[in-house]
């Protein structure tokens, strides 16, 4: 009897373990058990419930610069959201339309931009006045399609300027009632670090921030959350709950389609997802035609609506970049004003709304879950000019260096596969692609 009970309990435990293992494998990759390279499955799952974000949550400025005593400083704090707090105060100002001024030279423009006793809220790509109205609860009526990438606030009061690097322009807004007391209090918050900077024109349409001396930024560690692909299949390929999804397994990739115009490719190693819908894209022979019809404001709003509809967590996600060449709008996760950049699209969402009705999304199933202690480790970065010179000395053409920025690199933790380290470093937009400057230097060192 004892042996019989032992065998019964043992068999039950083994059965449960096998069940759990199979369930985990299916959850991680629903195509794992497809014997054929092409099969048909159906899904009726609904998207995961997440809190929807507003435009004012995602289209906030990314960085704050203080112009003081003839010097400009980027303000950094790992305890306070300086830029977010200043943005809230900006939304409380009562602004009125004013005048537009164009500066003839870069020198004149930079003198205006760095005027003493002022604060600058900056984006990395342009937004419009119409979008500014929505983000900052304003009612400006003029120049709705005016594009700008900085907001200049002279601390003596009286005016706010929407400033464009691309056109060297400043749209002056008058302040009906000055209330800069809280703005000044935020700038003087304890624990705010001042990083000395200057500006350089590495490309024609934007000034690049150069840190003039070495500085230290904290490292962070997070638990990784890998999302299940099933909700995205339901949301993007089977939104009506009636389609059959075809699955095709290739080397390191799984390709899903619904038999119409939707296609989703998942990299099984990195978790990167590329979704394409060509429902209303016009064709000219074998070539897809993408008509440029949407205005910039409408394009940004549409991309945000599509991002929200994905059903992903958008905490700390901000509007990061816009590419005129293919209408791609990029959103990234940010830490203390610095973006997370990785070649496998971790913490990145690329939305390409095709003007004829189609769309393309690139994102990752891997996301950040909760922070874990990192021991207070910091990384010391050199002055930007040093980085620039090292790249030139290594043989990289200055004409191909379009921009340099400080960002956090996603690295696998050496102690646990469930944890990633976010390490501050310089990223270089070289030949149209963002790459870590240390990786660029390694390539030349190895002869690649």
Describe the protein:
By secondary structure, this protein is α+β, with helices and mostly antiparallel strands. It is 24% helix and 41% strand. It has a 15-stranded mixed β-sheet that branches. Strands 2, 3, 4, 5, 6, 7, 8, 9, 10 and 11 form a 10-stranded antiparallel β-sheet that branches. A two-stranded antiparallel sheet has the order 12-26. The longest helix is centred in the first third of the chain and has 27 residues. This is YycH family protein.
CATH homologous superfamily caption of the largest domain: YycH protein, domain 2
| Helix content class | 10-25%
CATH C-level of the largest domain: Alpha Beta
State mean pLDDT (0 to 100 scale): 84
**Strand element count:** 29
What is the CA-CA span between the terminal residues? 69 Å
Strand content: 35-45%
Protein name: YycH family protein
Pfam family, one: YycH
Keywords: Membrane, Transmembrane, Transmembrane helix
InterPro entries: YycH, YycH/YycI_2
Compact summary:
The chain is of the alpha+beta class and 448 residues long. It contains ten helices and 29 strands.
Blueprint of the fold:
Elements: H1 2-28, E1 38-42, H2 55-58, E2 63-68, E3 71-76, H3 82-92, E4 95-96, E5 100-102, H4 106-113, E6 118-128, H5 129-135, E7 147-154, E8 159-164, E9 169-175, H6 181-187, E10 193-203, E11 206-211, E12 215-218, E13 220-226, H7 230-237, E14 244-250, E15 253-257, E16 262-267, E17 272-277, E18 282-284, E19 287-289, H8 296-309, E20 317-323, E21 328-335, E22 338-341, E23 348-353, E24 359-364, E25 366-372, E26 378-381, H9 384-393, E27 401-412, E28 419-430, E29 433-436, H10 437-446
Parallel strand pairs: 22-27
Antiparallel strand pairs: 1-14, 2-3, 2-6, 3-10, 4-9, 5-9, 6-7, 7-8, 8-9, 10-11, 12-26, 13-25, 13-28, 14-15, 15-16, 16-17, 17-24, 18-19, 20-21, 21-22, 21-23, 23-24, 27-28, 28-29
Helix pairs in contact: 3-6
């Amino acid at each position: 009897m004892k042996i019989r009970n032992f065998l019964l309990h043992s068999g039950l435990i083994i059965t449960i373990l096998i069940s759990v293992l199979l369930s985990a494998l299916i959850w991680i990759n629903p195509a794992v058990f497809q014997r054929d390279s092409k099969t048909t499955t159906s899904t009726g799952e609904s998207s995961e419930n997440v809190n929807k974000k507003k435009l004012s949550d995602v289209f906030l400025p990314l960085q704050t610069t203080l112009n003081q005593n003839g010097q400009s400083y980027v303000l950094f704090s790992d305890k306070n959201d300086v830029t977010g707090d200043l943005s809230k105060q900006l939304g409380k100002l009562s602004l009125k339309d004013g005048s537009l001024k164009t500066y003839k030279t870069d020198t004149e423009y930079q003198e205006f931009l760095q005027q003493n006793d002022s604060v600058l809220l900056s984006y990395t790509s342009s937004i419009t006045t119409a979008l500014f109205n929505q983000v900052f609860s304003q009612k400006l009526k003029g120049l709705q399609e005016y594009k700008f990438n900085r907001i200049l606030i002279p601390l003596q009061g009286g005016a706010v300027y929407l400033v464009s690097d691309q056109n060297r322009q400043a749209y002056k807004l008058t302040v009906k009632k000055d209330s800069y007391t809280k703005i000044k209090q935020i700038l003087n918050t304890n624990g705010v670090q001042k990083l000395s900077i200057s500006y350089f024109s590495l490309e024609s349409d934007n000034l690049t921030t150069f840190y003039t001396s070495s500085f230290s930024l904290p490292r962070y560690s997070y638990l990784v959350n890998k999302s299940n692909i099933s909700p995205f299949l339901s949301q993007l390929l089977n939104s009506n709950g009636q389609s059959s999804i075809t699955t095709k397994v290739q080397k390191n990739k799984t390709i899903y389609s619904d038999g119409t115009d939707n296609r989703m490719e998942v990299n099984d190693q990195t978790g990167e997802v590329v979704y394409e819908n060509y429902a209303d894209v016009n064709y000219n022979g074998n070539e897809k035609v993408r008509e440029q019809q949407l205005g910039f404001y409408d394009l940004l709003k549409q991309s945000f609506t599509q991002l929200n509809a994905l059903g992903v967590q958008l905490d700390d996600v901000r509007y990061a970049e816009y590419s005129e060449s293919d209408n791609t709008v990029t959103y990234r996760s940010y830490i203390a004003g610095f973006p997370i950049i990785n070649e496998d699209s971790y913490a990145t969402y690329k939305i390409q709304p095709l003007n004829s009705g189609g769309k393309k999304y690139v994102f990752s199933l891997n996301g950040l879950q909760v922070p874990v202690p990192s021991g207070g480790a910091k990384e010391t970065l050199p002055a930007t000019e040093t980085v620039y010179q090292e790249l030139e000395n290594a043989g990289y053409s200055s004409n191909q260096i379009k921009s340099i920025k400080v960002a956090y690199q996603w690295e696998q933790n050496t102690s646990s596969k469930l944890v990633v380290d976010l390490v501050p470093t310089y990223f270089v937009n070289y030949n149209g692609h963002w790459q870590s400057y240390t990786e660029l230097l390694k390539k030349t060192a190895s002869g690649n």
